[in-house]
Amino acid sequence: MKKDFETSFTGWAFIAAAVMLWGGWALSSHHIGEYIVASDFEAVGERVWYWIWMYRVHIFGWVTMAIAMFSLVSIASKKPFRVVMLPGAGMLIVGTFTLAIAAAFYYNFGAWGVGKTAGKSAEEIQLFMDSILSTNQYVTCFVRFGRIFSGVGLVLLSFAFIKWKLLPVWLGGLTLLLGFSAVALILAIPDNFELYKPLFHVKVIWLVMMGVTLLRQGINLAEAEA
């Protein structure tokens, strides 16, 4: 098992991503749904700067997750692992940044809308809501595709974890289950994000387990070719 600075940095990156992703979400004063509604602005406006900072923490959690994946693939980009690890990590990173961009929409429009709707009549607020509806619809596609891309990446990574025993078999199994569930749920329920929410928490747990495993055991590169 390889256990050195590289695996330690990668492990802490996974843990940091989990803490920021879940912490930013859990500590937020208000959660916006699939579509922004007028009542969101009143709720956000009650503690607008606190809400902004928690959303920033959450978004940087996605960014740190991508950093962790880049670090992991830099360790395991050796023959024969790289033929699966590189596309798997690539798909997961693309999906992660897609989700970060989608989160940035809710963050930006949630904060911006507080000022745009303050003191306005119901008719004026409705005009503003109509003006952002089209963009919001595109963003829901970003969320769906981000989750699907991430799921496909996780499935590929799980194949490498299990086939070459890079990480414990149980962790490879969790990775496979998380990836498959993400793809299946989004394809089965494309217009109901509420049912996907538990998978967000499972992903955070997966990040923690990845980090702890890398810190305690490192990664098995015994089958790597010189």
Describe the structure.
With 226 residues, the chain is mostly helical. 79% of the residues lie in helices and 0% in strands. It has helices at residues 5-26, 38-46, 48-76, 82-117, 122-163, 169-188, 197-216. Helix 3 runs antiparallel to helix 4 and helix 4 runs antiparallel to helix 5 (122-163). The longest helix is centred in the middle third of the chain and has 42 residues, at 122-163. The radius of gyration is 19 Å and the shape is elongated. The model has no long low-confidence stretch (mean pLDDT 93).
Structure characteristics:
226 residues; mainly alpha; 7 helices
Q: Approximately how much beta-strand content do the residues carry?
A: under 5%
Count every helix, treating DSSP H or I runs of 4 or more residues as helices. Answer: 7
Arithmetic mean of pLDDT: 93
N-to-C terminal Cα separation, in Å?
16 Å
> Unreliable stretches, pLDDT < 50, 5 or more residues?
none
**Helix vs. strand class:** mainly alpha
Order of helices and strands: HHHHHHH
| Helix percentage | over 70%
Number of strands: 0
Q: What composes the largest sheet?
A: none
User: Rg from C-alpha positions?
Assistant: 19 Å
